[in-house]
Specification:
The complex is a heterodimer of chains A (272) and B (283).
Chain A: E1 3-11, E2 17-26, E3 31-35, H1 42-49, E4 57-62, H2 72-80, E5 82-85, H3 97-102, H4 111-119, H5 124-132, H6 149-163, E6 167-171, H7 179-196, E7 199-203, H8 207-213, E8 216-221, E9 224-230, H9 236-243, H10 254-265
Parallel strand pairs in A: 3-7, 3-8, 5-6, 6-7
Antiparallel strand pairs in A: 1-2, 1-4, 8-9
Chain B: H1 20-40, H2 51-62, H3 71-106, H4 121-140, H5 143-154, H6 158-183, H7 187-194, H8 199-238, H9 240-250, H10 254-281
Helix pairs in contact in B: 3-4, 3-6, 3-8, 3-9, 4-6, 5-6, 5-8, 6-8, 7-8, 8-9, 8-10, 9-10
Classes of the chains: A alpha/beta (272), B mainly alpha (283).
C-alpha cells in the first residue's frame, strides 16, 4: 500500500470542518485524480497525504509508515520521499530557477552540499534535464520573480520531477497553463510516475483532463468522498451531481445553472 | 464590510463595520496613555524658544567654531577614529556571532515540529522560549553599564567597549533577526521543511532570498549605532573618539570638540551610504 487513510477527519483551527470520515487507499504506481467543487477539501486531503497536516480523527499510513507515530528523524526521511506540487508554487521569488529546481533534493543532501549549491549549482545537468522536459530549459539561470505564473508553476513541477519521490502529490498543477500546455505537462507527470513506479495523486479543476489521464477518479464534496471509481464507470450524471449547487454570482437559480454547467463540462469529456 | 450603511428606509439591514468600536477604543486608549507620559517627561518644546534659552544655546554653540585643524590634533583624531571604527566593527561582528545562532533557535519560521503539528513540539517550544529569554537578558543591561564593569576588569582601552557591544547588541540582533525571519513569507521555507529539508538549508533557500535586504540594512544600522555607542563608552575610558571628546570638553576646547563631531557626522554618512549600496546590491 502506497498510502491509506482510514476514517480520517480534520477540523481547521478556525472551526471549519475540512474532511469528514475519508477513507482512501492507493497502491504503488496508481494514478488517481481528485475532482470536486471549490471548498470540497481536495487541498486538505493532499496536505494530509503529504504529512503536512495531522488529522484529528482516523489513521494515516504513508509509504508503509504511520507518520504521526514516528520519530522526528523518521518523519523527515519519510517526507523526503513525498513530493508536493502546489497551485501557487512556494518558491522564494529572488531565488534562481536552477536553485529552485535543485531544492527538490534538499531532503537527501547534507547541509554543506545544500549551501555550496547555492553558490555554485552542484547538478546543473540534472536541473536542466528536469526543466527541458517542461520546455523551460533556456530559463535555467533566471530569477523566479521574472517568470510568468505558468512558468513558475512549471518550475514547481520540475522541482518535484528532480526529487523523484515515491509518492507524488499535485494540487492543481496545471491551473495556470493553457490547454495544450496543460495536456503536455500532465503527460510529463504521468510519464515520470510510470518511469519511477511512483504513485500519483492529482487534484484537478479541469474534469476533461482528469478523465483523459487518470484511470481512477475520486470525487469529493463538502469534505467527504462522493465516489471512488475507475474512469469508465464515471457518468455525466455523477459529475453533474458532484458540482451541483455551486454558488455562481448573478445566477437566479439552480434550474438555470445545472444544464449550462453540464454542457461546459462534457464538451471534451469523451463520455458516452 | 467597511461601508457605513444607510438606515433601512428600503427595508435593507444597516451595514456596520464590526471593527469600528474596537479601533476607536484602541485609539482613545493610546491617547490616554500618551498624555500622562508627556506630562511626566516634562515635555515642553516651547521652552526652547523662550527669551533667554536661545541666547544661551547660541553662546554655547559659538564656542564650537572654528573647528580645530592643528596637524598634531588631526593625527590624534585620525587614530581615535580608527580606534572607534575598530571597536564598533569588532563589537558588531561578535554580536552577530552571538545573535545569529540565538535567532535561528528562537524563530518560529524554521520550526519543523509546528508542521502538523509533529513530534517534539513541546520541547521545541520550550527551547524557543529559552532562546528568546537569553536574548532579552543580554540586552536588558545598557552597554555603558557593561563598559563600566569591564573597564574595571580589563583596564582602560577598547576591549571593554567591544565586549559590552558584543553582549548587548548580540541580544538585539538575536531578537530582530528572529522576528524578521517570521515576518517574511514563510511558505517557501515550510514547503522545503515539508519535503524533508534541513533547517539551515530551508533558511538559505526559502527565507534568506526574501529578507536579505531587511537583515543587512538592520545590521548596518546596528553598526552605525555601535559607532555612536563607542563614542559614549569612550567617556568612561574605553578609548577612541569618545575619550578624545571627553578630554576636549574637560579642557573647554570647543574647536576640538566640533572637529570630532564633524568626523562623527562623516562616519554616519558613510554608514548610510554603505547601507544603501548593500540594499541595491542585494536587489
Amino acid at each position: 500500500m502506497s498510502f491509506s487513510l482510514a476514517a480520517v477527519g480534520l477540523v481547521h483551527p478556525n472551526g471549519h470542518r475540512a474532511l469528514q470520515s475519508v477513507s482512501l487507499a492507493g497502491r504503488g504506481g496508481e494514478r488517481i485524480a481528485v475532482i470536486g467543487p471549490s471548498g470540497a477539501g481536495k487541498t486538505t486531503l493532499l496536505r494530509v497525504l503529504g504529512a503536512g497536516l495531522r488529522p484529528g480523527e482516523g489513521e494515516v499510513r504513508l509509504l508503509d509508515q504511520a507518520p504521526w507515530q514516528a520519530s522526528a528523524a523518521e518523519l523527515r526521511r519519510l517526507r523526503a520521499r513525498i513530493g508536493s506540487v502546489q497551485q501557487s508554487p512556494p518558491i522564494a521569488p529572488r531565488l534562481r530557477v536552477v536553485s529552485a529546481v535543485l531544492s527538490g533534493r534538499l531532503g537527501q543532501w547534507s547541509t554543506l552540499r545544500a549551501i555550496g549549491s547555492l553558490l555554485h549549482p552542484s547538478d546543473l545537468e540534472g536541473a536542466h534535464e528536469a526543466l527541458s522536459r517542461l520546455a523551460l530549459g533556456e530559463r535555467l539561470f533566471e530569477r523566479c520573480d521574472r517568470l510568468s505564473g505558468g512558468q513558475l508553476q512549471r518550475v514547481g513541477i520540475a522541482r518535484v520531477l528532480y526529487q523523484r519521490p515515491a509518492l507524488l502529490l499535485a494540487d492543481e498543477p496545471v491551473s495556470a497553463l493553457d490547454p495544450s500546455l496543460a495536456d503536455t505537462t500532465l503527460r510529463v507527470l504521468v510519464e515520470q510516475a510510470g518511469a519511477t513506479g511512483a504513485t500519483l495523486v492529482a487534484s484537478l479543476h479541469a474534469v476533461d483532463l482528469a478523465l483523459r489521464w487518470f484511470p481512477r477518479i475520486v470525487g469529493m464534496r463538502e469534505g467527504r468522498i462522493a465516489f471512488d471509481l475507475p474512469v469508465e464507470a464515471v457518468t455525466p450524471g455523477m459529475l453533474a451531481a458532484l458540482y451541483a449547487n455551486e454558488a455562481q454570482p448573478g445566477e437566479p437559480g439552480e434550474g438555470d445553472a445545472a444544464p449550462a454547467r453540464e454542457s461546459r463540462l462534457f464538451q471534451h469529456a469523451g463520455c458516452a | 464590510m467597511s461601508r457605513e450603511g444607510s438606515s433601512g428606509g428600503d427595508g435593507t439591514q444597516a451595514l456596520r463595520d464590526p471593527a469600528a468600536r474596537r479601533r476607536l477604543i484602541g485609539l482613545l486608549a493610546g491617547l490616554a496613555i500618551c498624555w500622562p507620559m508627556l506630562q511626566l517627561a516634562e515635555f515642553n518644546p516651547l521652552a526652547l524658544l523662550g527669551p533667554g534659552s536661545l541666547q544661551v544655546i547660541a553662546n554655547f554653540l559659538g564656542g564650537f567654531l572654528p573647528p580645530a585643524t592643528q596637524p598634531d590634533f588631526l593625527a590624534l583624531l585620525a587614530r581615535a577614529t580608527l580606534e572607534t571604527l575598530a571597536m564598533a566593527t569588532a563589537g558588531t561582528a561578535l554580536a552577530f556571532v552571538i545573535g545569529a545562532p540565538l535567532a535561528l533557535v528562537a524563530t518560529r519560521a524554521l520550526s519543523r515540529s509546528r508542521i502538523g503539528p509533529g513530534p517534539g513540539r513541546w520541547r521545541a517550544a520550550a527551547l524557543r522560549r529559552a532562546a528568546r529569554t537569553v536574548s532579552m537578558v543580554l540586552r536588558a543591561v545598557p552597554e555603558i553599564v557593561w563598559a563600566l564593569i569591564f573597564v574595571r576588569a580589563l583596564g582602560l582601552g577598547p576591549a571593554a567597549a567591544v565586549l559590552a557591544l558584543a553582549i548587548t547588541y548580540g541580544g538585539m540582533l538575536g531578537k530582530v533577526y528572529a522576528e524578521v525571519l517570521e515576518s517574511t513569507d514563510t511558505r517557501p521555507a515550510r514547503a522545503l521543511l515539508e519535503s524533508g529539508s534541513g533547517r539551515i538549508a530551508a533558511l538559505c533557500y526559502g527565507l534568506l532570498p526574501n529578507c536579505a535586504r531587511e537583515l543587512s540594512s538592520y545590521t548596518v544600522y546596528r553598526w552605525e549605532c555601535a559607532v555612536r555607542a563607542s563614542v559614549v563608552m569612550g567617556f568612561v575610558g574605553a578609548g577612541g573618539l569618545g575619550q578624545l571628546m571627553d578630554q576636549s570638553m574637560k579642557m573647554l576646547n570647543g574647536g576640538e570638540a566640533s572637529s570630532i563631531l564633524l568626523v562623527f557626522l562623516a562616519l554616519v554618512l558613510c554608514a548610510d551610504a554603505l547601507s544603501n549600496a548593500l540594499r541595491r546590491l542585494l536587489e
